Amino acid sequence: MTSTKSKRSHLLVVDDDKDHLALIKRWLELANFTVTGAESGEKALAVLESKRPDLVITDLVMTGIDGIRLLREIHRHDPVMPVIIMSGQAGIPEAVKATHLGASTFLTKPILRETLVEEAAQALAAHMGAESLGPDGFGAKIVHRSQVMAELLGRARLVAAVDTTVLITGETGTGKEVLAESIHRASPRADLPFVAINCSALPEELLESELFGHEKGAFTGAVTRHEGLFQAADGGTLFLDEIGDMPLPLQAKLLRVLQDFMVRPVGSTQAIPVDVRIISATHHDLEQLVGQNEFREDLFYRLSVVPLHMPSLRERREDIPLLTEHFLKQVADRTNRGIKRFAPDALRHLMGADLPGNVRQLQNLVEQCSV
User: Fold this and answer.
1) Contact 269, 214 (CB under 8 A)
2) Contact 120, 1 (CB under 8 A)
3) Residue 366 DSSP SS3
4) What is the CA radius of gyration of the chain?
5) Less CB within 10 Å around the terminal CB: N or C of the chain?
6) CB neighbours (10 Å) of residue 186?
7) DSSP states along 297-319
8) Is 250 in a helix, a strand, or coil?
9) d(CA 102, CA 118)
10) What is the distance of C-alpha 162 from the center of its chain?
11) pTM of the predicted protein model
């Protein structure tokens, strides 16, 4: 299952079992891939510094730098590089963890030659396909013409194809949830739920119940069993908006879930496995909050595997005329009236105005003027 594109692809294979490394390397070379072998995670990192492979295939259990740590190091420098992890010792929890850290797939030893070649070809095809996608079809709800937004959407488009954790930063009203939903809609999870929650909108006790669920009688008012949002989003994406406002005790519980993807409802002694992609967002500077001991450092690194920054309208003023026209059309469609237009002077004023509420404020302003 190779193509002319596969013949040009360079693969890095990492395994501390020399015999298995030689076998895998030979199979892939026979499938017309260019292959470099590395007998440890340390040697793999050295290879990555000198050349950029198209795909990395690594064993999970290795002395020194293991497969999970290698995966993190790879995606720290290149968040969208496809990585296949293989192991004969790992079970479902390790496979789920590897997937949520951005692994393209997880192969259990002994691996069949046909399976290996097919998975490599599919991972490369998915990556190449994501890189070749144009702006049409991705981020359709994000109106823009600015270069800064084009670059952001280009990176987000690549990240969508990789099942990894994303942290979106940006001021209030910039459209962080719209970007998160766009990533979900372009991901392999698109047909499954996209569930969003604002972490600053609920007190700690209710937020814990909403996220993890609760059993009947777990606390006063818990008259029925409640399924949390992690379970509701199973198979899909959970969007944690304003994650910077999450209380510290709840941060510890969230970190535990992200480590093993098991949730325990309030009042229950049983943990429930979940398969959820996490996208979080905040208007805070989380690194600053970490320095002030107001946000857990380990949770910050777990959430920000791939950081994306949503620019303010001040950074994309050339998008304001396009956004204004888009919002005017929305009002016209909703009210069944003709589309209004701003006078040129009014539009120039909007482009120079201070809009601290960003896109949300501009939308409200356009609707007020239309009314």
Assistant:
1) no
2) no
3) helix
4) 23
5) C
6) 20
7) HHHHHHH-SEEEEPPPGGG-GGG
8) helix
9) 19
10) 7
11) 0.69
Read off the DSSP letter of residue 196.
E
The position carrying tokens 């229950």 is 268
Q: Which amino acid is at 281?
A: A
Sole residue written with tokens 């003709």:
338
Query: Which secondary-structure segment (H or E) carries 273?
Result: strand 272-273
Q: Is 257 helix (H, G, I), strand (E, B) or coil?
A: helix
Q: How many CB atoms lie within 10 A of CB 295?
A: 23
Angle between helices 320-335 and 358-370 (to 10 degrees): 50
Do residues 218 and 261 touch, judged by C-beta distance below 8 A?
A: no
Cis peptide before 93 (omega within 30 of 0): no
Q: Which tokens is 99 given?
A: 């997937």
Residue 239 pairs in a beta bridge with 196, 279
Phi-psi region of 51 (alpha: psi -120 to 50; beta: other; left: phi over 0): beta
Phi, psi dihedrals of residue 236, rounded to the nearest 5°: -115, -140
User: pLDDT 10s per residue in the chain (371 long)?
Assistant: 443 343 478 999 999 999 999 999 999 999 999 999 999 999 999 998 888 898 999 999 898 999 989 998 887 777 668 899 998 765 556 766 776 677 878 888 889 999 999 999 888 876 665 444 444 457 667 888 788 898 899 889 889 988 889 999 999 999 999 999 999 999 999 999 999 999 998 888 889 889 998 787 666 666 677 888 999 999 999 999 999 999 999 999 999 999 989 999 888 888 899 999 999 999 999 999 999 999 999 999 999 999 999 999 999 998 898 899 889 988 988 888 888 888 888 888 998 899 999 999 999 999 999 88
